[in-house]
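Now for our target.
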Amino acid sequence: MDSVSNAPALELFPEDFESVLCVVAHPDDIEYGTAAAVAKWTEAGKTVTYFLLTRGEAGIDTMHPDEAGAVREAEERASAAVVGVTEVDFGTHRDGNVEYSLALRRDIAREIRRRRPDLVITGDYGNRFVGGMLNQADHRAVGLACADAVADAGNRWIFPELVDEGFEPWHVKVLAFAGPMTPTHYVDVGDKVEVAVASLEEHAAYNSALPDDFPKPAQLVPMILEMGAKAANVEGVTHALALDVVNRR
């Protein structure tokens, strides 16, 4: 991307943080773009952990959920390792049936208090992804619950039972949404495209069950990151993760 449009450029996402928690609904959600930034951050010595609310057990049409859950959990751990992440935790919510609820907020707030991250990244909870595709129900529920759980994590009186469990309040400095229709910042990941592709390729069972005409990781990941670069609108940036950033304090 050698030229820029007349649209205003996004701000470069500052990297003055030490720890990150990625909160998503399913195995592979992080690998559709965010993993490129994760690779950059772990290489720089930052601590990144993952929290997935489901095990993705309903994601493979040819495999019963009782079998698919374990397969997809293993694939997520392998894909995380490719980008330098060793701490991957899973919730107990049912894939495809995640509902926005106090229980969902509590589970995310508990993980935030346990991990105590500077930055929380989740998926955008709008009805559509950037590019106009319809956003999936679990993504919307988790994104919105995570937005609220970031505030919940800092207030001891919203879920006082978490304090009883030993999880003191924690104030997240920055909340960011990946895949937004209206991004505010970008992460330049031009040198992390190949490792991001390799991370998504670890989801072998899931990818093999997708329709034949669905883009393969080597096509899809660069396409997503090129869209991020187009949104960034900065000369010389060829691949980027676009984020909608909320500064908490």
